[in-house]
Amino acid sequence: MEKSADAFRTISEVAEELDLPQHVLRFWETRFAQIKPMKRGGGRRYYRPQDVELIKGIRHMLYDQGYTIKGVQKLLRENGNQFVIAIGRGDVAAVEAIAAQKIAEAEAKGEKSGDEEMLVGTPKVKPNRRFFGLSRGEEEGPVKDGEKLTRENRALLQETLFDLLECKRLLDQVR
């Protein structure tokens, strides 16, 4: 018999669902104050559905995106739980909505809009020409060095990245 979507989950159920050891979940509770399972007698943990969604987002950021714990803590502090949950789900529309709200709040305070800053992170290494399938003599296409991607193209690239990560996750499950 399967539990309903809004039922509480035990630590073993969450660990199995997310393919994580239980001790990692306990460790993350010490590093991320936002993860607060309900504890019953004897210290048994029961995770709410929103806790599980947040843990999925944290797992995605740490394991798939390559963020450090401090990096994810910073994202949570600056953008809130819903941002990390949306990234974990691959919900580009929600990520964009949260980013737009953050930009509007910054502009209302008279701060720099932050539109130039990527909210998801910056690449650690600049991709070389082979990454794009270009040899030395070929032109680089519509985006030249120094030019920025439009918000729409950035969203499309992010959506493609989420799709690829989901494919990777499915392939890893099959192995």
TrEMBL record:
Residues 10-78 form the HTH merR-type domain. CDD domains: HTH_MlrA-like_sg2 (cd04765). The lineage of its organism: Bacteria, Pseudomonadati, Pseudomonadota, Alphaproteobacteria, Hyphomicrobiales. InterPro entries: DNA-bd_dom_put_sf, MerR-type_HTH_dom, MerR_fam. The keyword Calcium does not apply. Keywords: DNA-binding. It holds the Pfam family MerR_1. GO terms for molecular function: DNA binding; DNA-binding transcription factor activity. The keyword DNA-binding applies. This is MerR family transcriptional regulator.
